[in-house]
Design goal:
Layout (H helix, E strand, L loop, with lengths): L2 H11 L4 E2 L10 E11 L4 E12 L8 H14 L4 E9 L7 E12 L3
Parallel strand pairs: 1-2
Antiparallel strand pairs: 2-3, 3-5, 4-5
Length: about 110
């Protein structure tokens, strides 16, 4: 699995996520996907990092962000790919009045496979 396959794996696992390049583009409730970068573990294996951001009108109210975080966590555990949930954290972006929670994920690739 290379970079393209890894991106497709994450994207197909979180199908409701909208792929964005910048957090400032979040202007409504929803789930968003960002590619954060990669680290070379050795000559052929890399760890790719992604962030799934949940934007909601509350943390735990109706349609709150934290319920979606639970779903994101469980999806990572149960998906057929080697996606690992690392952590989540609150974030804020300028001009946003939404509650934003960033879920950090990683996936391993081997460019020889």
């Amino acid at each position: 699995m290379g970079y393209v396959d890894a991106f497709r794996a994450v994207e197909s696992t979180y199908t409701e996520a909208i792929v964005l390049a910048h957090g400032k583009d979040i202007n409504q409730s929803g789930v968003y996907l960002f590619f954060e970068g990669s680290v070379a573990n050795n000559a052929v294996q890399d760890t790719l990092s992604f962030t799934v951001v949940v934007a909601a009108n509350s943390y735990i109210g109706e349609n709150g962000a934290m319920a979606k975080v639970d779903e994101i966590r469980l999806t990572a555990l149960n998906c057929p790919f080697d996606i690992e949930f690392k952590r989540c954290r609150g974030v804020n972006f300028e001009n946003s009045s939404l509650y934003l929670v960033a879920c950090e994920l990683t996936i391993q690739i081997n460019i020889k496979d």
